Structures are given as C-alpha cells and as structure tokens.
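During data preparation, a discrete fold description was generated, and the record follows.
___
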Amino acid sequence: MTYALIAAGVLYVLVRRFRGEPLNARDLLAPPAFLLFFGIRAVEEFSLLHLLPLAAGFAFGVLRGMTITLFERNGHLWQRYTPWTVVVWVTSIGASVGLGLLIGGHAPTQLSIGVGMLGELCAVGAKALNTGVPFAPEKLPNGSSSR
C-alpha cells in the first residue's frame, strides 16, 4: 500500500511538472521533505554501503534539476520538466537498481526518492534564486491556488 501511494504521488508530481506549473516554495520543499521523513522512519538497518546509492541519487537529482526549464509567467516563476528530465529520471532508476544489486541491498524507496528530490530542489532552488523572479505565491491574486 505504501509503495502504491508513493508511486501515485510521484506520478502526480511528474504529470503536473511536465505540463508546467507555478513554482512556489512549498511545492519545491514539500515532496522531498515528506519522502525523507517517511524514508528515514522506514530505515531498519543502515549500512555505510547505503551512502553510495543515496549519494548517486542526490547527484542524479541535481542533474535532473538542471534539466528543468524555469520561466516567468504573470510576474512569477514557473517550472516545466523536459524530455531530458525524464531521461535523467530513467537513468537514475537504473543506476539505483544497479547499485542496489552491486552492494546487495538498498535504502528504503521513499528515502531514495526523497534524496533525489532533495538534489533536484537544490538545483532548481539555486536556478530560481538566480533569476531574480519571485516564486509563485501560494494563492494567486484572484484567490485561486497557484496549482
């Protein structure tokens, strides 16, 4: 059940971001925070060998964040995943599985995805701050959500 909820959440985020959406701080921070919280709670036994796939996941997250297009619309930032973003997602999944097989185990899925999304957050956050364009507000001026 947990994996189905995680998969549904990740799919939801992917679809929204591929279509393009306002970039607000909460949407940038919430997915990795949620997944890291539950991923850390799911850790039963942690080995230093788990650091390699987690470090790789973070690096792929940074790379994925670099593929995301940021643009201004209505005076605030928007983001859109590109085909390269999907290529990096698929490659990172393959690398994660490969490293897991190589070291004989892996960190919990939620933790792995959360670490990757944390890397993405770092790259996108840095790019966003460098634009000088404000993040999208939680609520748009007409009272609707920025989602």
User: Anything to note?
Assistant: The longest helix spans residues 109-131. The beta strands are 21-22, 69-73, 76-80. The chain is about 65% helix and 10% strand. Residues 2-131 form one domain.
